[in-house]
């Protein structure tokens, strides 16, 4: 299994609650405020490295695969990549343990936070396997969820359209209108399920919102953009653009400010 059998996506009951609480201790809004600057830095660096000088970029590619473990399959490549990441994370956990013993801030990053978290009922620590599995999940979900959310603001293509496209819930559901979500109280429960709902709701919801807002800020202030020719959609297994939803981008040119060299 690429993500691991102790990640929150594979757990239920008390184990799920314990791991979810541990992740939320890092992903809660008051903690994430400390990382907005880092997100901003990473987004700017990514755009400078991968967007500048290009006329076309791909918003999102597929990361899912059929679980057939043969040497030439994407799943096999994923397993091998997962093994390398796990080895790296185990070494990193050892480093973070040493830092904590020397008095490091237990909330300086996700791993130190998970190492410092104790179960509220019995004081149990997370095992190293649980930490590794859930860090890999966060890395994967941080790419997948945020990229899909950003792409959604360019073109609506959710598969959860039984409620998302219900005009009795959302007026003109095909219209791009982010302001419809400003008043959360007006949205019926379980009608907008991009991040799930209830006790199984994605714990990275607030993280994805902040990351997406930072990305969109740079997208709309530094570039003009438009969709390339419609490439169609496929299931992989999610409903995704078959070619990653390519867009044409043009850097914005601002007139010089008078008196400023």
Automatic annotation (TrEMBL):
This is Cytochrome P450. The keyword Iron applies. It comes from Populus tomentosa (Chinese white poplar). Keywords: Iron, Metal-binding. The keyword Protein transport does not apply. Belongs to the cytochrome P450 family. GO terms for molecular function: heme binding; iron ion binding; monooxygenase activity; oxidoreductase activity, acting on paired donors, with incorporation or reduction of molecular oxygen. One of its GO terms (biological process) is sterol metabolic process.
């Amino acid at each position: 299994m690429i993500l691991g059998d102790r990640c929150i996506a594979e757990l239920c009951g008390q184990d799920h609650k314990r791991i979810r609480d541990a992740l939320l201790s890092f992903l809660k809004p008051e903690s994430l405020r400390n990382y907005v600057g880092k997100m901003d830095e990473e987004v700017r660096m990514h755009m400078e490295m991968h967007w500048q000088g290009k006329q076309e970029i791909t918003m999102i590619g597929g990361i899912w695969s059929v679980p057939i473990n043969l040497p030439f399959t994407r799943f096999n490549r994923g397993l091998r990549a997962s093994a390398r990441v796990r080895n790296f994370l185990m070494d990193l956990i050892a480093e973070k343990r040493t830092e904590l013993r020397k008095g490091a801030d237990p909330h300086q990053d996700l791993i130190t936070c998970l190492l410092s978290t104790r179960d509220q009922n019995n004081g149990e620590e997370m095992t190293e396997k649980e930490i590794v599995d859930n860090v890999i999940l966060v890395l994967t979900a941080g790419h997948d969820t945020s990229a899909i959310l950003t792409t959604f603001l360019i073109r609506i293509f959710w598969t959860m359209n039984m409620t998302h496209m219900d005009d009795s819930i959302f007026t003109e559901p095909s219209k791009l209108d982010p302001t419809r979500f400003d008043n959360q109280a007006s949205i019926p429960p379980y009608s907008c399920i991009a991040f799930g709902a209830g006790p199984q709701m994605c714990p990275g919801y607030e993280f994805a919102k902040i990351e997406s807002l930072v990305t969109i800020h740079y997208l709309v202030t530094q570039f003009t953009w438009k969709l390339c020719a419609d490439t169609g959609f496929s299931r992989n297994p999610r409903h995704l653009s078959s070619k990653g939803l390519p867009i044409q981008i043009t850097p914005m040119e601002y007139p010089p400010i008078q008196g400023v060299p």
